[in-house]
Amino acid sequence: MLRWARVWRLPLRGLGPSSLSASRVPFAPSSSGRSGTERRSVLLSYKLLDGEAARPALVFLHGLFGSKTNFNSIAKALAQQTGRRVLTVDARNHGDSPHSPDMSYEAMSQDVQDLLTQLGLVPCVLVGHSMGGRTAMLLALQRSQPPF
C-alpha cells in the first residue's frame, strides 16, 4: 500500500521567506511498521573460509546488485594473510539466497544476525558495501552490547 510523504525542496542560492516549496510523493512504508506480523528470517547462502576461531571473523555484505562472489578475491587474500575466518553472504533476494517479498533493512539485518548466531561467529567484524553497509549499520545499532 502506498502512502504519501511531504518532500521539501530547497533552492540552490539559499533560504529566504518564500524559498521553500513542498510537494507530496508516494512511498511504500517498510514492513516493520506493520503491527501484528512476525518477521521471518530466511536461510542465507554463504561461503565461510576457515581460520582461527579465537579471532573475530570478517563478514562481508554486498551491495544492491551484488552477491557473495563479489568478495571472493579479497576474502581469500584476507583469510590467508590474517588467519581469520572470512564469511561472505548473499542477502535475501540476491545470489543463491531465497527470495522473500520483505526486502526491508530490518529483515536483512535479522537474517545476518541469525546466520552469525547459527555459525557461532559472534563477535565479528562487519564490512558492508552500499546496501550491505546499511544492513551492517542497522545490525550494529540494534545490538545493545557490542558483540558485532
Give descriptors for this structure.
disordered N terminus, four-stranded mixed sheet, globular, two-stranded antiparallel ribbon, 148 residues, 3 helices, alpha/beta
Question: In brief, what are we looking at here?
Answer:
The protein has 148 residues and is of the alpha/beta class. The protein has helices at residues 72-82, 105-119, 131-142; strands spanning 3-9, 21-27, 46-49, 57-61, 86-89, 124-128.
Give a verbal description of the structure.
The protein is of the alpha/beta class. 26% of the residues lie in helices and 22% in strands. The chain contains three helices and six strands. A four-stranded mixed β-sheet has the order 3-5-4-6. A two-stranded antiparallel sheet has the order 1-2. The protein is globular and about 40 Å long. The model is unreliable at 1-8 and 25-36 (pLDDT under 50).
What's the order of the H and E elements?
EEEEHEHEH
Return Rg in Å.
19 Å
Beta-sheet strand percentage? 15-25%
| Topology, number of strands | 6
Please give the largest β-sheet. Answer: 4 strands, mixed
Task: Tell me the layout of helices and strands.
Elements: E1 3-9, E2 21-27, E3 46-49, E4 57-61, H1 72-82, E5 86-89, H2 105-119, E6 124-128, H3 131-142
Parallel strand pairs: 4-5, 4-6
Antiparallel strand pairs: 1-2, 3-5
Helix pairs in contact: 2-3
